[in-house]
Amino acid sequence: MKWEEYASRVLAICRIGQKYSKDPYALENYQELEELSLKMMEGRTEPELVRNLYVRDVYPTPSSTVRVLVFNPQGRLLMVKEDDGGWAVPGGWCEVFYSLQKNAVKEVFEETGIHCEIQALIGVFQREKYKDYPTLVSEYVHYFWATTTDETLHHNHEVSEAGFFDLKELPPLSRKNTEAELRQALAYIKTGQQVPFD
User: Fold this and answer.
1) If DSSP codes are grouped into helix, strand and coil, which group holds residue 114?
2) What is the Cα Rg of the chain in Å?
3) Cβ atoms 127, 140 nearer than 8 A
4) Quick check: 187 and 196 in contact, CB under 8 A?
5) Rounded to an integer, what distance in angstroms lies between the CA atom of residue 185 and that of residue 66?
6) pLDDT tens track for 69-120
7) Which residues pair with 63 in a beta bridge?
């Protein structure tokens, strides 16, 4: 990763921290870190790049997310309990300058403590087509198939539980993925058919 990309990632983390943190000290720190990052960029790059890219007015594009179907050696599916009380396969928003695969592995580890190995991309969906509630967020979700031999679960603050489930006994789903999405992604694993995409 080039140093400009590192600087951009720091700025992205600052924006995320300022959006989600409730602690006034943390908010001050994120603001200061943002200012320091911009100062570091001065004189080291093109003048038009010395600004926070994440507060600019840009051409609107869909958000990009990942979801990962992780199976243990017994063929059970790893799932996490989301803040809406339903269950989903691990995943989340993509980080800037990370590949889709790196984002997928990172999300699984952050949410569950599980190390996984990506096997294949198994679906790309325009999520608003599958949501059964109103949304103004346009989102492309990339589904991956992964395997693991690691079954030591340590979920983080983003989810309240994590566990492996038999495909015939899945828990009630979260709004963060739908049965239609999971069914299409699983069809690729079972049959090797063409990767579904919207």
Assistant:
1) coil
2) 19
3) yes
4) yes
5) 12
6) 999 999 999 999 999 999 999 999 999 889 999 999 999 999 999 999 999 9
7) 139
The answer to whether the beta carbons of residues 195 and 187 sit under 8 Å apart is no
Q: What is the pLDDT of residues 165-174, one digit of tens each?
A: 999 999 999 9
Coil vs helix vs strand at 6: helix
How far CA 47 is from CA of 36, 44, 51, in Å, comes to 16, 9, 9
Whether the predicted model's global pTM rises above the 0.70 cut: yes
Q: Which two tokens stand for residue 73?
A: 């050696």
- Residue 92 CA to residue 67 CA, distance in Å, equals 7
Provide the CB-side half-sphere exposure for 120 (13 A, CA).
13
DSSP conformational letter for 54:
G
Q: Which residues are paired to 121 by β-bridges?
A: 144
Q: How many residues does the chain have?
A: 198
